[in-house]
Write a structure and sequence with these properties.
single chain; about 70 residues; 6-stranded antiparallel β-sheet; 2 helices
Length: about 70
Amino acid sequence: MKRIRKNATRKIAQVFNQVTECKVYTLDEGFVGRVCDKKYAEKELTRFESNYLRDNEDGSYTVKVHGNLWYNLA
């Protein structure tokens, strides 16, 4: 798994343009993926410096917010 730098704006834009499905995983919902709009994942990515985008190297990506909140993009 490879982290994508936050200053790689073209790569990040490419990722968000190509994804067709976004699921959010939260502690409140027992980590069961709930389909959501990808704009929420994109907003969370820029919200805090510690949030990051990870290439899962299987065609999917993860926006990691913290241990109890992340978004999977496919």
